């Protein structure tokens, strides 16, 4: 090793003194200073400074290495350089006549085949659009138009991509079937009608692991769970007083359902019993909406709200102890509500603002400090709503880890999130096994106490979606009730990818028979409810 001259030694002693002072105030300053002096002194790559006693005087000892590391100053992460790339204009969906109804919903949802938005039309209408239909929206595009009031929210069935639920101002929830390739004519007849709410239905969300279980919230201040295959309500939750419910979220296995409310209380329910198991008052002190999201299979969840001074913030919580948040991060001063989206495969939390064009992303961890800021995407075009599509819909070989659908005032803009990599090979470190879109249990099994984890699949091209966590598609052993027999048949047919518009003679007869059976079952139910035997 080349010896250090006396002049170099004196200079380095001064650098050490300055760095010791500056590290208490501006750590980054000392780092820059050391590298500047390194350039002037032309020393070998510097890794570590440390003190030692040399001939009775405290001086600086240089330890050299052929590698230079910054791990002491910057946290290492595979996602430090993640970036958002907006789609080109020719890949966007423009001239969309969006409905004017407002509320707590995100206004857009998507799966791997379609996205859905509410459209201006008589009564309530919704467009379910295949991704191939890019460009200007066709004014004559076939719609779902079976509600008597505005459609306020909707959600795709996570296990059957041709099934979508809609919630409306007319107090009902309806289940619709989408033919392969999309609608060819306006659809007014739902597969299932779910009635029971006393006021408009504001939010709906499917269960993440149990087949055909749906949660809904309403201005009647209740949360209800439904078995859509039987067309029946299974659980009712009424602990919100007369306060509007602002958001709801399922836990990783679906055993817990969380709600946020206008009274500033976060409630965690045992979803099967409908009982509150834990709650936190004044989770956020601001008066605006609070949104909530569980962080995958971590034992934590996040809420996004406002301070008393209307500053936006998010907090990380342990559901087992809600006395105090694990982490609080103040974001900025803005009026728009933030929509949280969590990717459990990358541990990245995306915070998307309504009314602004910014997306902030954080890497979440199970221990301190729980949230690491990564970067921010800025846009001058404000967002009305946002959706995250399943990982199966991303371009894996281009290292697209997330795809968001940004809804503006009259357009839908796909946003692609990439992790830059030089190799064209499959990157297994950023693409672990992911949510497969296969139920791990039936509705009856879940209600009976089963608590299965989501079924996972490999994203490797050669694996072709092979199941990797021993998850098995649960099958029901019980027969459908007489009330739901017609409903079950229709839902099952669309779940298998069938089409309602089967124009063959046999298909028409089957459709007519199913409709007649459903109507008969409905009438029999009404007779029983009124005590009339037949």
From TrEMBL:
Q: Which organism is it from?
A: Peronospora belbahrii
UniProt protein name: Coronin
What sequence ranges are listed for the domain DUF1899? 72-135
- Provide the residue intervals of the WD repeats: 144-186, 194-236
- Span list, region Disordered: 467-486
Q: Which InterPro entries does the UniProt entry name for this protein?
A: Apc4-like_WD40_dom, Coronin, DUF1899, WD40/YVTN_repeat-like_dom_sf, WD40_repeat_CS, WD40_repeat_dom_sf, WD40_rpt
Q: Name one GO biological process term.
A: actin filament organization
User: Coiled coil: is it a keyword of this entry?
Assistant: yes
The alphabetized UniProt keywords are: Actin-binding, Coiled coil, Membrane, Repeat, Transmembrane, Transmembrane helix, WD repeat
Q: Which family does it belong to?
A: Belongs to the WD repeat coronin family.
């Amino acid at each position: 090793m080349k010896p250090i001259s006396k002049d170099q030694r004196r200079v380095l002693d001064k650098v050490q003194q300055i760095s010791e002072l500056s590290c208490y105030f501006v750590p980054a300053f000392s780092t820059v200073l050391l590298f500047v002096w390194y350039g002037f002194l032309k020393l070998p790559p510097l890794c570590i400074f440390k003190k030692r006693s040399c001939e009775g005087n405290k001086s600086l000892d240089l330890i050299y290495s052929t590698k230079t590391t910054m791990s002491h100053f910057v946290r290492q992460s595979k996602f430090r350089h993640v970036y958002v790339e907006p789609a080109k204009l020719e890949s966007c969906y423009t001239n969309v006549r969006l409905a004017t109804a407002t509320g707590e919903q995100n206004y857009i949802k998507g799966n791997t085949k379609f996205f859905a938005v509410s459209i201006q039309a008589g009564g309530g209408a919704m467009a379910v659009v295949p991704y191939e239909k890019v460009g200007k929206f066709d004014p004559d595009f076939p719609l779902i138009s079976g509600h008597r009031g505005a459609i306020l929210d909707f959600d795709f069935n996570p296990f059957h991509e041709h099934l979508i639920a809609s919630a409306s101002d007319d107090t009902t929830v309806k289940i619709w079937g989408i033919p392969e390739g999309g609608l060819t004519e306006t659809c007014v007849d739902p597969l299932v009608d779910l009635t029971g709410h006393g006021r408009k239905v504001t939010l709906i969300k499917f269960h993440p692991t149990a087949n055909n279980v749906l949660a809904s919230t309403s201005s009647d201040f209740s949360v209800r769970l439904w078995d859509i295959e039987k067309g029946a309500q299974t659980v009712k939750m009424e602990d919100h007083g007369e306060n509007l419910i602002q958001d709801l979220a399922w836990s990783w296995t679906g055993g817990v359902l969380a709600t946020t409310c206008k009274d500033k209380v976060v409630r965690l329910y045992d979803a099967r019993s409908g009982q509150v198991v834990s709650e936190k008052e004044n989770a956020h002190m601001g008066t605006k909406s609070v949104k909530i999201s569980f962080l995958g299979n971590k034992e934590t969840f996040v809420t996004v709200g406002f301070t008393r001074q209307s500053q936006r913030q998010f907090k990380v919580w342990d559901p087992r102890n809600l006395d105090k948040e694990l982490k609080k991060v103040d974001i900025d001063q803005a009026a728009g509500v933030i929509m949280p989206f969590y990717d459990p495969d990358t541990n990245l939390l995306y915070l998307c603002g309504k009314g602004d064009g910014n997306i902030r992303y954080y890497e979440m961890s199970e221990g301190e400090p729980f949230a690491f800021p990564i970067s921010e995407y800025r846009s001058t075009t404000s967002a009305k709503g946002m959706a995250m599509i399943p990982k199966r819909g991303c371009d894996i070989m281009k290292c697209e880890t997330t795809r968001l659908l940004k809804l503006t005032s009259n357009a839908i803009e796909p946003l692609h999130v990439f992790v830059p990599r030089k190799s064209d090979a499959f990157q297994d470190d950023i693409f672990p096994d992911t949510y497969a879109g296969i139920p791990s249990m039936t509705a009856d099994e879940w209600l009976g106490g089963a608590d299965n984890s989501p079924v996972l699949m490999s994203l490797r091209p050669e694996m072709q979606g092979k199941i990797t966590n021993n998850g098995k598609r649960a099958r029901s052993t019980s027969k459908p009730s007489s009330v739901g027999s017609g409903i079950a048949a229709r839902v099952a047919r669309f779940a298998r990818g069938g089409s309602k518009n089967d124009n063959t003679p046999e298909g028409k007869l089957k459709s007519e028979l199913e409709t007649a059976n459903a109507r008969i079952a409905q009438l029999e139910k009404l007779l029983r409810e009124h005590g009339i035997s037949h």
